[in-house]
TrEMBL record:
Name of the featured protein: CBS-domain-containing protein
SMART domains: CBS (SM00116), PB1 (SM00666)
Keywords: CBS domain, Membrane, Repeat, Transmembrane, Transmembrane helix
Residue ranges of the region described as Disordered: 378-402
Transmembrane segments: 516-535
InterPro entries in alphabetical order: CBS_dom (IPR000644), CBS_dom_sf (IPR046342), CBS_domain-containing (IPR051462), PB1-like (IPR053793), PB1_dom (IPR000270)
PB1 domain span: 409-493
Occurrences of domain CBS (ranges): 64-122, 131-187, 233-292, 299-356
Keyword Repeat (UniProt): yes
Length: 539
C-alpha cells in the first residue's frame, strides 16, 4: 500500500514538472517576441514627454489608480498596433485623431473579432476601421462606486478617464480594481469565517429556536459567506477545438459564441487554452498567417485549473498570481465543468461588496485609497515610465476632449431565483429592455419578470416605469436590492392585459441595516455563549 502511494506521488510530481516545463517554454517564446518588437520600437522613440501628476482623492476614480493609457493615431496599421500592444503588455488602446482628441478605443477582443474572424489583413487595415468610436469616459473625481457600477451595467472592462479640462488621464480596468482590493477582501472574509463558524455552533445548540432567530442567523451567514465558482458557472459548455484547428476558424468560433477563450482538447482531455490575447501576441504581432497556423503552435499548454468548490476570492488570487484572464473548471475526476473569465468573477465580487455594504458600497472603495499596499499591476501615473513613438502619443499630453461623458448614479442591485439557482447583479434602473436581456442571458430562455409592490402584490414588469417603480419601492422599504420573480415565458392570448396583479401571501421578512450587521452579530453571539455557559453550569 505504501509503495503504491509513493509511486502515485512520484508520478504526480513528474507530471507537474512536465506541465510546468511546457508552460515555461511558451513563456520564453512570448518574451522573445516582445524583445524583438521592443528592439524595433526603440529605434523609433522620440524625446520623453513630461508625465502629468494627479493627486489621489479617496473614494474617487483617481484613488483606483488608473493605468497609463496606450494611445495611437487612427491611421496606424493593425499589425503595428498589435506589436505595440504586445510590447507594452496592453489589452486596450485609446485612439486619437490628428488634433489629439480621443476618437476611439479597441481591445484584443476587437482584433480577434473584427480582423482575424472577419478575414481582414492586419498589414493593410488601419485601426480606424476596427475601433469603437466615441467611447464613454469618466472624470478623475467621479465617485469610484459610480464608475464601477457603470462598467458593470454596460459590460465594460475598460473605461477611459479624463480630467476636468478633458485631457486623457488614464485608463480604468475593472479587473485591476478588484485585484487592488484582494488583500482587503481576504482579511474581511477571514474575520467573517471565524464568526460564521461560531454561528454554526450556536445554531446547533439552539436547534429549536424561533423562526425569526433562525432567519436572522441565516441572513448573517449569507452576508458573510464567499461564493464558490458554482455560483457563476453557466449552462453553456466552453467552446472546444482540436489541436489542428486553424487560428482563423478559432477566431470565428470566438465571435460566434461571444467569448475570448477556447479550450483545446485531445484524446486525453484538456490540452491547452487559446485566447484573444494570444491572437494579438503570438499570431498578429509575430507575423503568422491565421489561415495556415494551427492552434497547437500558439496555445498555452496544460493551463491551470480549479475545482467547482473553489471560492471566487481564491480563483481571483490564482488568476492574479498566474497573470491570466481565463480559468478552466474541472471536477475531481478531471472532467470539464466550465470556463470562468476574470470579468465574470469581478462582477460577482462587486455584487458581494455591494451586498455587504448596501447602497453605501462607496465606503469600501473610499478605504482603498488608504491601503498601505501599492499596486503591483497598475502603478500610479506619476510613476509611469515615459515612452513615446512617432505613431504613439503620450496619454498625458495636453489634449482637449470635446465630449467627456458624465456619470449619473442610476444603478441598483437585483436578485432572482431560477431553476434552483440564485442570480445577483447590478443594473441600470431606467432600461427595462436591457434588464430583460441580461436576465435572459442568465436563464438562457425567454422569461417574464415581475416584482412585489408595497402591498405585496405581484406586478408584471413590462416597461421602464415598472422597473423604476420596483426600485423606488425597495428603497422606501429600506432594502438594498429588488427581488424579482422570474418565470419561463408562455405565449398568452393577445387580449390578455399586459399588466396582471396576482395576490400573494405576505412573507415574514426581516430587514437588517447593513451598518449594524457585524456589531449586532458579535453582541448576539456573546449573549448566546454567555446564556449557554450559564445553563450548562446550573445543570
Amino acid at each position: 500500500m505504501r509503495l503504491t502511494n509513493s509511486s502515485s506521488t512520484i508520478h504526480s510530481a513528474i507530471e507537474s514538472d512536465i506541465l510546468s516545463s511546457t508552460r515555461q517554454r511558451q513563456s520564453k517564446k512570448d518574451e522573445a517576441i516582445r524583445k524583438k518588437i521592443e528592439q524595433e520600437l526603440s529605434r523609433k522613440r522620440s524625446n520623453p514627454t513630461r508625465i502629468r501628476q494627479t493627486k489621489k482623492i479617496a473614494g474617487t476614480v483617481s484613488a483606483l489608480r488608473p493605468a497609463q493609457a496606450l494611445t495611437l493615431k487612427e491611421n496606424i496599421l493593425v499589425i503595428e498596433a498589435a506589436q505595440l500592444m504586445a510590447a507594452k503588455r496592453s489589452d486596450c488602446v485609446l485612439v486619437v485623431d490628428d488634433e489629439e482628441h480621443l476618437n476611439g478605443i479597441f481591445t484584443a477582443k476587437d482584433l480577434a473579432y473584427r480582423v482575424v474572424a472577419d478575414n481582414l489583413d492586419a498589414r493593410s487595415t488601419t485601426v480606424s476601421d476596427i475601433m469603437t468610436r466615441n467611447p464613454m469616459c469618466v472624470t478623475a473625481d467621479t465617485c469610484a462606486q459610480d464608475a464601477l457600477n457603470l462598467m458593470v451595467s454596460r459590460g465594460f472592462r475598460h473605461l477611459p478617464v479624463c480630467n476636468e479640462e478633458g485631457d486623457i488621464f488614464g485608463l480604468l480596468d475593472i479587473t485591476k480594481c478588484i485585484y487592488e482590493a484582494l488583500h482587503k477582501m481576504e482579511k474581511a472574509y477571514g474575520s467573517s469565517r471565524k464568526l460564521y463558524d461560531a454561528l454554526e455552533g450556536v445554531e446547533r445548540e439552539w436547534a429549536n429556536s424561533p423562526v425569526q432567530l433562525v432567519q436572522y442567523m441565516e441572513t448573517l451567514k449569507d452576508k458573510m459567506s464567499c461564493p464558490d465558482l458554482t455560483s457563476v458557472l453557466t449552462h453553456h459548455e466552453p467552446v472546444q477545438v482540436s489541436l489542428k484547428t486553424q487560428v482563423r476558424e478559432v477566431a470565428k468560433l470566438m465571435k460566434e459564441y461571444h467569448t475570448t477563450a477556447v479550450l483545446v482538447m485531445d484524446h486525453n482531455g484538456l490540452a491547452g487554452i487559446f485566447t484573444s490575447k494570444d491572437i494579438v501576441l503570438r499570431v498578429i504581432a509575430a507575423g503568422l498567417a491565421p489561415d495556415s497556423c494551427s492552434v497547437v503552435r500558439v496555445m498555452t499548454p496544460h493551463p491551470d485549473t480549479a475545482l467547482p468548490s473553489t471560492s471566487i476570492l481564491d480563483a481571483l488570487k490564482k488568476m492574479h498570481d498566474g497573470h491570466y484572464l481565463n480559468l478552466p473548471v474541472l471536477d475531481e475526476d478531471k472532467n470539464l465543468v466550465g470556463l470562468i473569465d476574470v470579468l465574470r468573477l469581478t462582477y460577482a465580487t462587486l455584487e458581494q461588496i455591494n451586498s455587504i455594504e448596501g447602497n453605501q458600497g462607496a465606503k469600501f472603495w473610499h478605504s482603498i485609497a488608504f491601503s498601505e499596499n501599492e499596486s503591483i499591476l497598475s502603478d500610479p501615473l506619476s510613476q509611469a515610465p515615459p515612452s513615446t513613438y512617432p505613431e504613439l502619443t503620450s496619454s498625458n499630453s495636453s489634449t482637449e476632449h470635446e465630449s467627456t461623458a458624465s456619470i449619473v448614479t442610476n444603478t441598483f442591485s437585483f436578485k432572482f431565483n431560477y431553476s434552483n439557482k440564485t442570480h445577483r447583479f447590478r443594473h441600470e434602473i431606467n432600461n427595462f429592455a436591457m434588464l430583460l436581456e441580461t436576465i435572459q442571458q442568465k436563464t438562457e430562455q425567454p422569461v417574464t419578470v415581475a416584482y412585489l409592490d408595497d402591498e405585496n402584490d405581484q406586478v408584471l414588469m413590462t416597461c421602464d416605469s415598472d422597473l423604476m417603480d420596483s426600485v423606488q419601492i425597495a428603497k422606501n422599504a429600506g432594502l438594498d436590492r429588488v427581488k424579482l420573480i422570474v418565470k419561463r415565458h408562455i405565449k398568452q392570448n393577445p387580449m390578455t392585459e399586459q399588466r396582471s396583479i396576482v395576490k400573494q401571501e405576505k412573507r415574514n421578512t426581516i430587514t437588517i441595516p447593513h451598518d449594524v450587521i457585524l456589531p449586532a452579530a458579535i453582541t448576539f453571539l456573546g449573549v448566546v455563549i454567555l446564556s449557554v455557559f450559564t445553563i450548562s453550569k446550573s445543570k
